[in-house]
Design brief:
- With about 60 residues, the chain is α+β, with helices and mostly antiparallel strands.
- Helix content is about 15%, strand content about 25%.
- It contains two helices and two strands, in the order E-E-H-H.
- The chain has a two-stranded antiparallel ribbon with strand order 1-2.
- The model has no long low-confidence stretch (mean pLDDT about 80).
């Protein structure tokens, strides 16, 4: 069984959030739970931003 690791890091390379899923999970699925309590701007590859995530952005 293969796994995928998701990290959210700050500008000082400090780990803010961690999530591990199996490989058949969509890469966008863990994001809402990982950022639920964050009050920051998120930057990432545009291809991974789903419509619902884009609508929730400021």
């Amino acid at each position: 069984m293969a796994l995928k690791l998701y990290l959210i890091i700050n500008d000082k390379v400090g780990i803010i959030s961690v999530n591990v899923t199996i490989t058949n999970v969509d890469d966008r699925k863990p994001v809402p739970d990982m950022v639920d309590n964050l009050w920051v701007l998120l930057y990432g590859y545009k291809g991974y931003i789903s419509n619902s995530l884009e609508k929730n952005s400021p």
